[in-house]
């Protein structure tokens, strides 16, 4: 089973290899660390502070390869799976970590963690720590963690005479979006991702599908993308975005929705809990203090939302592992949180990772509008709460198998085409079902 899974990843990687060479090389003396990192505001802060690491660690230089999410996934997967050696530290998630650890592609970090006095791995939120572990050892350390929730403009709700429930349903959200949609004023009722990518539109959509009672595969690996539950969820999502979502929704991802919401161009935004720091940052938002935050909307399940963490891992072939760990420890330590807070403001600290962050008085004050909802979302993000039917795979907003990078991206392209009005939802799902059936058949053969 493991060998088949490794071959599946390598098959996907073969499609991604172009452009992966030349990302960087170790400098003289093996002391230049090449770090592959996803481009978003939290990572930008780490890069801005990296001169402090270099100052405190003479002789170690950092070179960042910073890429948008979809491109970063492709490059990092290709390099790590083929032992390319371009990167000493890579930013990956709880999707990749257990699989890559099982494949032997990552360095076991537990010995480094255990030898690092004061690092305090028990301070990591348990569900986040467990999601980055394999056979009891951590193979990646979290930079930030997240679930998903709904942000809404309190001022617009009050003006419209609407009240947001603490635990809304998606039907209620659709009604609110219709009431608040104001095309003349340039304000969409809601912003939802429509950009293709298994880590883009598929993340929020999969949580919607889950709470409708849908699943990707049944217990026997039969594809379920044309089931009544999956179809109802897809039709709901597409209709909501097309009727009351943002302009250009089929190409809007987390970054685009963040910009629109922060500029006052959306009344609601359902996405990662990490969004709150950007929404409440005066440097990037025009709606500071105007938002409320509530749990991910539901339909048939007890709760909804996802569990995700961007983390740092060390490829097995990294050339200077001690130096790589020193950097990884610096970027994921308690002291880094305080450095970000005092340098850039407490709304910009990496959230959802360390329990101690939520005990810092300055952070408690700055994040009082969203910190409780963030922790509650992460705590409740389990399949038993967010799904109605049993599934044969790990993951909530993703299917935790190697083939999902390709499968999820293909399905997301169909969903995006439906959002753009190029095909119907039924056409999108029929094509998606065919993709999923080929994946499921391979797993049935190995049972």
Automatic annotation (TrEMBL):
<dbReference type="InterPro" id="IPR050490">
    <property type="entry name" value="Bact_solute-bd_prot1"/>
</dbReference>
<keyword id="KW-0732">Signal</keyword>
<dbReference type="Pfam" id="PF01547">
    <property type="entry name" value="SBP_bac_1"/>
</dbReference>
<dbReference type="InterPro" id="IPR006059">
    <property type="entry name" value="SBP"/>
</dbReference>
<feature type="signal peptide">
    <location>
        <begin position="1"/>
        <end position="23"/>
    </location>
</feature>
<protein>
    <submittedName>
        <fullName>Sugar ABC transporter substrate-binding protein</fullName>
    </submittedName>
</protein>
């Amino acid at each position: 089973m493991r060998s088949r899974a490794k071959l599946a990843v390598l098959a996907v990687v073969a499609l991604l290899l172009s452009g992966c060479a030349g990302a960087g090389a170790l400098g003289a003396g093996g002391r230049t660390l090449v770090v592959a990192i996803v481009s978003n505001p939290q990572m930008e802060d780490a890069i801005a502070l990296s001169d402090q690491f270099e100052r405190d660690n003479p002789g170690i230089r950092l070179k960042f390869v910073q890429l948008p999410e979809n491109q970063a996934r492709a490059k990092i997967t290709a390099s790590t799976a083929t032992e390319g050696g371009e990167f000493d530290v890579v930013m990956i998630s709880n999707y990749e970590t257990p699989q890559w650890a099982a494949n032997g592609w990552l360095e076991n970090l537990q010995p480094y963690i255990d030898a690092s006095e004061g690092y305090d791995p028990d301070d990591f939120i348990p569900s986040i720590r467990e999601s980055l572990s394999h056979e009891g050892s951590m193979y990646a350390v979290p930079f930030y963690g997240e679930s998903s929730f709904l942000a809404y403009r309190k001022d617009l709700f009050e003006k419209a005479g609407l009240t947001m429930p603490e635990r809304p349903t998606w039907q209620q959200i659709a009604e609110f979006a219709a009431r608040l949609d104001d095309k003349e004023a340039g304000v969409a009722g809601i912003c939802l991702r429509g950009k293709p990518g298994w880590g883009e539109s598929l993340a929020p959509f999969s949580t919607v599908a889950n709470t409708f009672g849908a699943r990707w595969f049944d217990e026997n690996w039969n594809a379920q993308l044309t089931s009544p539950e999956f179809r109802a969820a897809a039709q709901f999502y597409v209709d909501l975005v097309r009727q009351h979502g943002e302009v250009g929704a089929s190409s809007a991802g987390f970054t685009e929705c963040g910009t629109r919401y922060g500029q006052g161009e959306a009344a609601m935004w359902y996405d990662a809990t990490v969004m709150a720091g950007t929404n409440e940052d005066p440097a990037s938002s025009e709606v500071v203090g105007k938002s409320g935050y509530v749990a991910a909307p539901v339909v048939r399940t007890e709760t909804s939302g996802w569990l995700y963490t961007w983390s740092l891992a060390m490829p097995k072939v990294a050339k200077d592992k001690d130096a790589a760990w020193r950097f990884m420890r610096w970027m994921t330590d308690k002291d880094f949180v305080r450095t970000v807070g005092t340098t850039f403001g407490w709304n910009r600290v990496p959230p959802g990772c360390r329990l101690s962050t939520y005990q810092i008085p300055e952070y408690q004050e700055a994040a009082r509008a969203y910190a409780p909802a963030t922790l509650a979302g992460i705590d409740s993000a389990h399949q038993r709460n967010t799904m109605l039917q049993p599934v044969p795979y790990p993951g909530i907003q993703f299917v935790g198998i190697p083939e999902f990078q390709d499968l999820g991206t293909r399905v997301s392209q169909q969903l995006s085409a439906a959002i753009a009005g190029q095909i119907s939802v039924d056409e999108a799902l029929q094509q998606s079902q065919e993709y999923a059936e080929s994946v499921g058949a391979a797993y049935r053969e190995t049972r």
